[in-house]
Amino acid sequence: MDNASKTRRLLFRLGTVLILIGICAVMMIVGRGHTVYFDNKQLEYNGTTCECPYKIKVLVKDEQVANLKAKERGMATTIGQNFAMTLKITQEKGGDEVVETYQLKLPYNMDGIVVNLPAYLEGLPEEAWMSEFVPIATESTAEDEEVPGGDEFEMEDLGDF
Amino acid sequence: MNNKSFGKKVLGFVQDNTVPLMFIVICAICIPLSGFSASYLINEIVTRMGRNIFLILCLLIPIMAGMGLNFGMTLGAMAGEIALILVSDWQIWGIPGVVLAMILSIPISVLLGYFCGKILNMAKGREMITSYIISYFMNGIYQLIVLYMMGPIIPIKHSSIKLPRGYGVRNTVSLLNMRQCLDNLLAVRVGGVKIPVLTFLIIGVLCIFIIWFRRTKLGQDMRAVGQDMNVARDAGIKVERTRIISMIMSTVLAGFGMVIYLQNMGNIATYSSHSQIGMFCIAALLVGGASVDRASIGNVFLGVILFHTMFIVAPKAGAAITGDSMIGEYFRVFASYGVVTISLIMYETKKRKNKSLVGQQLAQAQKEEEAQNNG
């Protein structure tokens, strides 16, 4: 094989690897999943009190994901960092419903994101209405999981195939 | 005379297709006994076709290279699982998660395929048993990685994946956020049957790739190596290299296949998903009429349909016949191992028969030559 074809082959391989790395990077960004939690709870921030409306309906991609009265929480899952939601807000019981669409930029590093809707609607800074959802660790014992460890040969579970 | 030759033809056909015919008979008996409706049965078969065909297609390339049934495809399955565990921990969901897992599985599969190919080159003529044992050996390494290295060495963040002790991966990893994402995209419903169009398109692309690949220089080399290694070597083909490439290709495709398979299932049984996959894929291929040295895309499709029909109906049919569904479960396992055994025996018998036929022809030719010389 001459030098020219060797170089061409090397370039082709490097190009393929670079393309694959590029696709991986894109997939990492566009495929990052988040769980967004919506709180309709009163919040105090720097002396400002955000009162919660009577009812907020949250729609994501034209599908209602939460119907929140005061002190309630709802959730939705989303892929990517751009999150669009439509809020149908009823300030008081029997009052008119105001429909508004909002766009949120979700932080990449957070799996679960809590959005306090009254604070968000009030126009407070991001640190006031956005926080990370940290699941409460449940106590579990090692007996919960039976992982392989024995040296016996046994008939394996067929399972579904 | 005509009747005699027709009878011979039928006998030849039956001899050549013993396994598929046997399974057609089993299915014909079991389907009415199971009591499943036609739409349910078709739905299940179509789902299982989408789930398994890609995995089974990866077996065709080593057969082409004369390496027999690649039990080492389990290695690719492990690569796919490791990639999926990482993607699941990084919280990459949906189609991007599937694509990322496929790409991540490539370097692991290439490494494992190269290793497997190297060893199989040292064990020419005994590739199947060697690859079978390699898969057991590699299962130990896989467990070492997943059980001890994931956590302290390979970072695993989420407690839903990590064992409570702080290292190692749980028995089951949920893939809920990418469950059937390939199957549901572009899915079409025809008469109550869900057809996963995208998955079938991917399978179609692989089929076209295999057909195209057979005609390439490398594909021709593989076929030459598969027919006779010595002749291929004399013709200037790098036999060892060609065999290693076939193993790498098969392992990479098995990794992709495992990702497709697990996204359909929606969870990973971390320590057992891969363990039986080689056996069942090979059994399905053999049920389709393939043999150790000859397999086609048609065998894959027929095999999946027959083998999985048996898989679906056997427990219910077993319950109807004996009153115990476990009999049906055992029958599935028995049939899977049995079909591999029968095929291997038939292959060996055929090989010996051909060998003795060649010997007889040679003796006959020698006799004739001697008679001519004496005359």
Describe the structure.
Chain A is of the alpha+beta class. Chain A has two domains: 1-30; 33-132, Immunoglobulin-like. Chain A is 24% helix and 38% strand. In chain A, a hairpin with a 2-residue loop joins strand 2 (43-45) and strand 3. Chain B is mainly α and 375 residues long. Chain B is globular. Chain B has a single domain (2-369), classed as ABC transporter involved in vitamin B12 uptake, BtuC, CATH 1.10.3470. Chain B has 15 helices and four strands.
Key features of this structure:
heterodimer, A: 161 residues, alpha+beta, Immunoglobulin-like, 4-stranded mixed β-sheet, 4-stranded antiparallel β-sheet, 3 helices, 10 strands, 24% helix, 38% strand, B: 375 residues, mainly alpha, ABC transporter involved in vitamin B12 uptake, BtuC, two-stranded antiparallel sheet, 75% helix, globular
Short description:
With 161 residues, chain A is an alpha+beta fold. Helices cover 24% and strands 38% of the residues of chain A.
Proportion of beta-strand residues of chain A: 35-45%
CATH level 3 topology of chain B = ABC transporter involved in vitamin B12 uptake, BtuC
How many DSSP E strands of chain B? 4
Strand order of the largest sheet of chain A: 6-1-9-10
Largest sheet of chain B: 2 strands, antiparallel
SSE layout and pairing:
The complex is a heterodimer of chains A (about 160) and B (about 375).
Chain A: H1 3-30, E1 33-40, E2 43-45, E3 48-50, E4 55-60, E5 63-69, E6 72-79, E7 82-90, E8 97-105, E9 112-116, H2 117-122, H3 126-129, E10 130-132
Parallel strand pairs in A: 1-9
Antiparallel strand pairs in A: 1-6, 2-3, 4-5, 4-7, 7-8, 9-10
Chain B: H1 2-16, H2 18-34, H3 38-57, H4 60-64, H5 73-89, H6 94-122, H7 127-149, E1 172-174, H8 181-184, E2 188-190, E3 193-195, H9 197-215, H10 217-227, H11 229-234, H12 239-265, E4 267-269, H13 277-287, H14 297-322, H15 325-374
Antiparallel strand pairs in B: 1-4, 2-3
